[in-house]
Amino acid sequence: TQLLKQSPQFLSIQEGENLTVYCNSSSVFSSLQWYRQEPGEGPVLLVTVVTGGEVKKLKRLTFQFGDARKDSSLHITAAQPGDTGLYLCAGLTSTSGTYKYIFGTGTRLKVLA
Amino acid sequence: GAVVSQHPSRVICKSGTSVKIECRSLDFQATTMFWYRQFPKQSLMLMATSNEGSKATYEQGVEKDKFLINHASLTLSTLTVTSAHPEDSSFYICSASSPGIMYQETQYFGPGTRLLVL
Q1: Is the CB of residue B7 less than 8 Å from the CB of residue B112?
Q2: Angle at the Cα of A103 (from B90 to B28), degrees rounded to 5?
Q3: Torsions phi, psi of A82, nearest 5?
Q4: Distance between CA atoms of B38 and A2, rounded to whole angstroms?
Q5: Contact A101 B110 (CB under 8 A)
Q6: What is the pLDDT of residues A85-101, one digit of tens each?
Q7: What's the mean pLDDT in B60-69?
């Protein structure tokens, strides 16, 4: 069974602080996506990383895909209360022409004003 | 961006009844739709992968006779929870995907359906 473990599980920080969320697996993924989910809503895609070692930036968010495509990190600079939510990584796997996404265990972030 | 709708958004039913949840891609054709289940304060768990015109592929541990999935068209997939029990109460989310650049297939999520079985 492929597992994606995220750490930390919970994080509560003050506005303006920096933080990093990790997504680790023993499996190799074709690509990896990061989502943010608000309570009672579906996840919203933040970014897709495809190439090992790839780094993508989205305003104050920096995403990195590990060289071996087994792990990824999300770094938020100067966190704001609007960043509060559940952050999920999801790895894309494919076999015999079909594909599916395996979601990580999730990181619940709360940014205090 | 692509829009996916789910109906109903909330449903309360009695134990033993069946509930149908619809997932529609509104402005694109989805060759593949995924059904997820999410318990409170937990991550998404993939239940099944649904391809238009073929039988759904269920994940290990998901009862295919209890969770019936039909993907009759490129814009509609349905999940029917048969003989629902209180332990089936959960947040059910669908996503729709269309062919894209290799390894960058994007899935677009619906808003979810909260099911409460009394």
Answers
A1: no
A2: 85
A3: -70, -10
A4: 18
A5: no
A6: 999 999 988 877 778 89
A7: 94
